[in-house]
Recover the amino acids of this structure.
């Protein structure tokens, strides 16, 4: 057999093997992609038990500590692209919040913003350093903001990226949430594509079988997502951060995309007006997921914020 025919045979064998894995265990294909991203970031995973939950954590790098907190329907993996940038100069830690991703979910537990803020406080106490930056995205920003308002000692600075918790200008997403819907709900390929179209300006294509694994995960979480959204988006705790943000005494980075279709950019100005000390960075062309769509720009904004006196 010639080298060319041998290479073709190997390629065909690998394709058949990948297809077989995709059919039998699509989640393994998705995990392989996450493993690749962890490798690129020089990151590793570990587990820790805090606040009656097992947490799965990904971390990379060394130096001053940055802690990253994901948003609604998100996970620690959302941070891997920007972690790759930040880990060059910092130790970067990103947990799956309890109830989400690979962390533990308990039947009947409260996963609203106040309860999660208290769990996050407990998690931060297990780390061997105080974060120079505690950064939360979307729901994670709401949680980080509430924690900083109630305990300014948790971090030297905080960041609110596309953060929930204030009454921003009406948009379609907000109207649907207030009407009792979950605009992020995913149950099939069409709703997965719709979800990606909401959170990204230029939605990535998720190929099969990774799409199959994502759809299965999200379909299993429909009831859980609806319950959590009741708390963070339309329940009595949904605007607590707007009421309490004046208590935040540490410097705050406000990082938004101008074309965010989830948390309208008007929220950034509401936070700026209500906070004692804030710096606003507005990006273009990245929707609701700037850390994935523009990781280098996000990392540069973080570095500049940390360098500012």
């Amino acid at each position: 057999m010639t080298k060319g025919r041998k290479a073709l045979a190997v390629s065909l064998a690998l394709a058949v093997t990948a297809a077989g894995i995709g059919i039998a265990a699509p989640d393994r294909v998705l995990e392989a992609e996450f493993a690749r991203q962890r490798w690129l970031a020089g990151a590793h995973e570990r587990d820790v038990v805090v606040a009656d939950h097992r947490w799965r954590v990904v971390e990379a790098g060394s130096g001053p500590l940055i802690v990253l907190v994901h948003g609604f329907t998100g996970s620690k993996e959302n941070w891997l692209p920007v972690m790759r940038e930040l880990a060059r100069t910092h130790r970067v830690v990103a947990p799956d919040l309890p109830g989400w991703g690979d962390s533990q979910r308990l039947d009947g537990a409260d996963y609203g913003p106040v309860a999660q803020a208290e769990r996050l406080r407990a998690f931060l106490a297990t780390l061997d350093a105080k974060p120079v930056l505690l950064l939360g995205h979307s729901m994670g920003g709401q949680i980080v903001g509430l924690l900083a308002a109630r305990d300014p000692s948790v971090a030297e600075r905080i960041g609110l990226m596309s953060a929930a918790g204030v009454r921003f200008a009406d948009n379609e997403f907000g109207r649907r949430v207030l009407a009792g819907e979950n605009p992020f709900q995913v149950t099939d390929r069409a709703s997965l594509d719709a979800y990606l179209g909401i959170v990204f300006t230029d939605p990535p294509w998720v190929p099969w079988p990774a799409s199959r694994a994502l759809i299965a995960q999200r379909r299993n979480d429909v009831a859980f997502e609806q319950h959590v959204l009741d708390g963070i988006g339309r329940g009595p705790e949904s605007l607590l951060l707007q009421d309490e943000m004046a208590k935040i005494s540490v410097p705050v980075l406000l990082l938004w995309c101008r074309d965010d279709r989830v948390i309208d950019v008007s929220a950034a100005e509401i936070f700026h007006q209500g906070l004692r000390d804030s710096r606003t960075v507005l990006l273009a062309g990245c929707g609701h997921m700037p850390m994935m769509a523009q990781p280098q720009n996000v990392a540069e904004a973080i570095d500049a914020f940390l360098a500012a006196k």
